[in-house]
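W.,

You were right to be curious about this one. When I first looked at the sequence I had no strong expectations either way, so I just let the prediction run and decided to look at it fresh. Below is the sequence, 141 residues in total, followed by the output.
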Amino acid sequence: MARLAVSLDGSTAEVHDEFRQVRGSFDHGLRILRTARDIGMSTQVNTVVARHNVDDFDVMAELLDELGIVFWEVFFLVPVGRAGPDDVVGAEAFESVFHELYDLSKDVSFDIKATAAPHYTRVVLQRKKAERREGLRNEAS
């Protein structure tokens, strides 16, 4: 096995378990990740972005750093199955999450990938271009 993946959809049991509708699943996921870390197994966390956790990503990133994961795969909710249109965040919130993920990616010890969100690539490219421009301006000063 190359890597163990666990779904965590919030930084607390309250946030995660409510979304997954399985009481205790957050704590169970943490136990799995900590055990894997302790035996040296590579781990990743999969997270679904939805209304329940759209403001939780900075705290999530701290938790994931503490857990020693190597990869965070962030999925943007598609309203099928139990997920309805009311669970999906709006365009402004998506854009905000893209920028937050980019900022976090510069400070955390693990890689971040946004799935089902091709617009994240646009944000990354725009931000890197702006940072290069700013760097050139600072060098010219």
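Here's what jumped out at me. The longest helix spans residues 119-140. And, maybe more interesting for your project: Residues 4-140 form a domain with the pyruvate-formate lyase- activating enzyme fold (CATH 3.80.30.10).

Coffee later to discuss?

I.
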